User: Fold Tubulin polymerization promoting protein from Cyprinus carpio.
Amino acid sequence: LADITALEESFRRFAIHGDTRATGRDMNGKNWSKLCKDCGVIDGKSITLTDVDIVFSKVKNKTARTITYSQFKEALAELAGKRFKDKSSEDAAQEVYRMIEGKSPVISGVTKAVASPTVSRLTDTTKFTGSHKERFDETGRGKGKAGRVEMVDKSGYVSGYKHAGSYEKKTKAETNP
Assistant:
Protein backbone atom coordinates (compact mmCIF):
# COMPACT_ATOMS: atom_id res chain seq x y z
CA LEU A 1 0.00 0.00 0.00
CA ALA A 2 2.95 2.34 0.60
CA ASP A 3 3.97 2.58 -3.07
CA ILE A 4 0.38 3.31 -4.13
CA THR A 5 0.31 6.39 -1.91
CA ALA A 6 3.74 7.60 -3.09
CA LEU A 7 2.63 7.20 -6.70
CA GLU A 8 -0.72 8.83 -6.05
CA GLU A 9 1.04 11.68 -4.23
CA SER A 10 3.13 12.37 -7.35
CA PHE A 11 0.02 12.06 -9.53
CA ARG A 12 -1.67 14.75 -7.41
CA ARG A 13 1.36 17.06 -7.46
CA PHE A 14 1.55 16.94 -11.24
CA ALA A 15 -2.24 17.11 -11.63
CA ILE A 16 -2.47 20.48 -9.87
CA HIS A 17 0.71 21.90 -11.45
CA GLY A 18 0.09 25.21 -13.18
CA ASP A 19 -3.67 25.11 -12.59
CA THR A 20 -5.09 26.97 -9.62
CA ARG A 21 -8.53 25.38 -10.06
CA ALA A 22 -7.31 21.79 -10.23
CA THR A 23 -8.45 19.41 -7.51
CA GLY A 24 -5.72 16.82 -8.04
CA ARG A 25 -8.24 14.10 -8.87
CA ASP A 26 -7.61 14.22 -12.61
CA MET A 27 -4.74 15.25 -14.86
CA ASN A 28 -4.70 17.09 -18.17
CA GLY A 29 -2.58 16.13 -21.17
CA LYS A 30 -0.03 18.89 -20.66
CA ASN A 31 0.73 17.80 -17.10
CA TRP A 32 0.77 14.13 -18.14
CA SER A 33 3.46 14.97 -20.71
CA LYS A 34 5.33 17.00 -18.08
CA LEU A 35 5.22 14.10 -15.61
CA CYS A 36 6.60 11.71 -18.22
CA LYS A 37 9.34 14.18 -19.14
CA ASP A 38 10.33 15.20 -15.59
CA CYS A 39 10.40 11.64 -14.26
CA GLY A 40 12.43 10.27 -17.15
CA VAL A 41 9.70 8.01 -18.58
CA ILE A 42 10.38 9.63 -21.96
CA ASP A 43 13.83 8.47 -22.99
CA GLY A 44 13.72 9.65 -26.61
CA LYS A 45 14.36 6.13 -27.90
CA SER A 46 11.69 3.61 -26.90
CA ILE A 47 9.30 6.30 -25.62
CA THR A 48 8.89 9.73 -27.19
CA LEU A 49 6.57 12.65 -26.48
CA THR A 50 4.33 11.41 -29.30
CA ASP A 51 3.96 7.97 -27.66
CA VAL A 52 3.01 9.65 -24.40
CA ASP A 53 0.34 11.75 -26.15
CA ILE A 54 -1.07 8.72 -27.98
CA VAL A 55 -1.34 6.69 -24.77
CA PHE A 56 -3.09 9.63 -23.07
CA SER A 57 -5.66 9.82 -25.86
CA LYS A 58 -6.16 6.07 -25.70
CA VAL A 59 -6.88 5.80 -21.95
CA LYS A 60 -9.02 8.91 -21.45
CA ASN A 61 -12.78 8.88 -21.98
CA LYS A 62 -13.87 9.94 -25.48
CA THR A 63 -15.17 13.38 -24.50
CA ALA A 64 -12.90 13.97 -21.50
CA ARG A 65 -9.83 16.18 -21.56
CA THR A 66 -8.32 14.69 -18.41
CA ILE A 67 -7.46 11.27 -17.00
CA THR A 68 -8.27 9.89 -13.55
CA TYR A 69 -5.79 8.13 -11.27
CA SER A 70 -6.90 4.67 -12.45
CA GLN A 71 -6.57 5.74 -16.11
CA PHE A 72 -3.18 7.20 -15.20
CA LYS A 73 -2.03 3.80 -13.90
CA GLU A 74 -3.42 2.16 -17.04
CA ALA A 75 -1.46 4.61 -19.20
CA LEU A 76 1.72 3.97 -17.20
CA ALA A 77 1.31 0.21 -17.60
CA GLU A 78 1.04 0.69 -21.35
CA LEU A 79 4.17 2.86 -21.47
CA ALA A 80 6.01 0.46 -19.14
CA GLY A 81 5.63 -2.34 -21.67
CA LYS A 82 7.33 -0.21 -24.31
CA ARG A 83 10.02 1.13 -21.99
CA PHE A 84 11.09 -2.19 -20.45
CA LYS A 85 10.44 -4.70 -23.23
CA ASP A 86 12.44 -7.51 -21.61
CA LYS A 87 10.48 -7.46 -18.33
CA SER A 88 7.05 -8.87 -17.53
CA SER A 89 4.25 -6.31 -17.64
CA GLU A 90 3.97 -6.39 -13.82
CA ASP A 91 7.71 -5.80 -13.29
CA ALA A 92 7.82 -3.14 -15.99
CA ALA A 93 4.92 -1.27 -14.39
CA GLN A 94 6.66 -1.40 -10.97
CA GLU A 95 9.83 -0.06 -12.59
CA VAL A 96 7.96 2.92 -14.06
CA TYR A 97 6.13 3.54 -10.77
CA ARG A 98 9.50 3.72 -9.03
CA MET A 99 10.61 6.43 -11.49
CA ILE A 100 7.62 8.58 -10.58
CA GLU A 101 7.14 7.97 -6.85
CA GLY A 102 7.78 10.98 -4.65
CA LYS A 103 8.61 13.25 -7.60
CA SER A 104 7.34 16.81 -7.99
CA PRO A 105 7.06 18.96 -11.11
CA VAL A 106 10.36 20.55 -12.07
CA ILE A 107 10.02 24.26 -12.63
CA SER A 108 12.67 25.15 -15.15
CA GLY A 109 13.93 28.41 -16.56
CA VAL A 110 11.13 30.58 -15.23
CA THR A 111 13.23 33.04 -13.28
CA LYS A 112 16.16 33.45 -15.68
CA ALA A 113 16.25 36.98 -17.02
CA VAL A 114 18.23 37.57 -20.15
CA ALA A 115 20.69 40.40 -19.66
CA SER A 116 21.47 41.23 -23.26
CA PRO A 117 22.70 44.76 -23.95
CA THR A 118 19.68 45.43 -26.16
CA VAL A 119 17.18 44.48 -23.47
CA SER A 120 19.01 46.35 -20.72
CA ARG A 121 19.11 49.48 -22.88
CA LEU A 122 15.38 49.25 -23.51
CA THR A 123 14.51 48.63 -19.87
CA ASP A 124 16.82 51.22 -18.31
CA THR A 125 14.34 53.74 -16.87
CA THR A 126 16.97 56.48 -16.57
CA LYS A 127 17.12 56.73 -20.37
CA PHE A 128 13.34 57.10 -20.79
CA THR A 129 12.09 60.36 -22.31
CA GLY A 130 8.84 62.28 -22.52
CA SER A 131 5.80 61.00 -20.66
CA HIS A 132 7.45 57.61 -20.09
CA LYS A 133 9.94 59.00 -17.60
CA GLU A 134 7.01 60.27 -15.51
CA ARG A 135 6.04 56.67 -14.82
CA PHE A 136 9.13 55.85 -12.72
CA ASP A 137 10.72 57.39 -9.63
CA GLU A 138 14.46 58.14 -9.31
CA THR A 139 15.26 54.57 -8.26
CA GLY A 140 13.63 53.14 -11.39
CA ARG A 141 10.60 51.69 -9.61
CA GLY A 142 7.25 52.12 -11.32
CA LYS A 143 4.87 54.63 -9.77
CA GLY A 144 1.83 52.54 -10.66
CA LYS A 145 -1.35 54.49 -11.26
CA ALA A 146 0.27 57.81 -10.30
CA GLY A 147 2.62 57.46 -13.28
CA ARG A 148 -0.17 56.74 -15.76
CA VAL A 149 -3.22 58.70 -14.69
CA GLU A 150 -3.31 62.47 -14.66
CA MET A 151 -3.80 63.31 -10.99
CA VAL A 152 -5.58 66.67 -10.67
CA ASP A 153 -3.62 69.12 -8.56
CA LYS A 154 -6.04 71.49 -6.81
CA SER A 155 -3.30 73.58 -5.12
CA GLY A 156 -3.68 76.53 -7.48
CA TYR A 157 -0.09 76.37 -8.72
CA VAL A 158 0.89 75.60 -12.30
CA SER A 159 2.36 72.16 -12.80
CA GLY A 160 6.11 71.95 -12.39
CA TYR A 161 6.28 75.07 -10.17
CA LYS A 162 9.11 74.43 -7.73
CA HIS A 163 8.29 76.92 -4.94
CA ALA A 164 4.72 75.85 -4.19
CA GLY A 165 3.64 76.94 -0.72
CA SER A 166 6.45 79.46 -0.30
CA TYR A 167 4.35 82.61 -0.94
CA GLU A 168 2.82 82.66 2.55
CA LYS A 169 6.28 82.40 4.10
CA LYS A 170 7.53 85.26 1.94
CA THR A 171 4.66 87.61 2.80
CA LYS A 172 4.97 86.85 6.53
CA ALA A 173 8.69 87.61 6.37
CA GLU A 174 7.98 91.01 4.73
CA THR A 175 5.25 92.07 7.19
CA ASN A 176 7.28 91.06 10.28
CA PRO A 177 10.75 92.56 9.75
Remarks:
- The longest strand covers residues 26-28.
- The beta strands are 26-28, 66-68.
